[in-house]
Structure formats: C-alpha cells, structure tokens
Fold this protein.
Amino acid sequence: QVDVVESGGGLVQPGGSLRLSCAASGRSVSLDAAGWYRQAPGKQRELVAELTASGWANYADSAKERFTISVDKSKKSVYLNLNSLMPDDTAVYYCHIEAYVDYSGPYEYWGQGTRVTVSS
C-alpha cells in the first residue's frame, strides 16, 4: 500500500509564492520519477513540471522560470516551488510519482490534490 499526500496549497495574492509538498508513504518505496499536474475548473488536467528518472526537469511553458520541481528521495518527497503566481495558476495541483515497491515496478501513483487559489 502506497499513499501519496500533497500539502501546501492555499489562497495567495497575485505575485505571491507557495511551496507544495508531496510525500509518499509505505515500506520499501523508492521514488523513480515524479511530476506535478494541475486541473483548473472546466479544463483538462495538464502537466506543470516533471523530473525524469535520469534527473531531467521539464516544465510547461507557463511554468518556466516561475516554478521549480525538486525531489528528496531519502524523504520520499516531491516539492514544487511556485513563484510569481498569477490568477491563471488557480487550480487543483496533483502529485504523480513513479516508484519501486519492494524492488518491483515502477508503479504509478497519484495524490488527492491540493488547491491553489490566486486572487486579490
């Protein structure tokens, strides 16, 4: 059993910052790759940022130079720093991980989402 839990969302003014966290729990879980997606009201879920298994970071054009993804494999955690937030960044943000469990996999897991609202 692997649980993925996000935190760090909230209400922030335009131009503000947030740090989203995502923690995977479960014994013998080893992160391989990770990403953050978001879904705004009435829109499809879209990729925001990802870290590949080889360590490459890829960002959506809307996220470049404003958002930063990072992983701490020792803590089985993924982070997304959001800077210079704009109202268009308002969405539910989902963590997606690929992880080895008991040395098999990798398997994919999603978190339940954390809401980010950018408004004055």
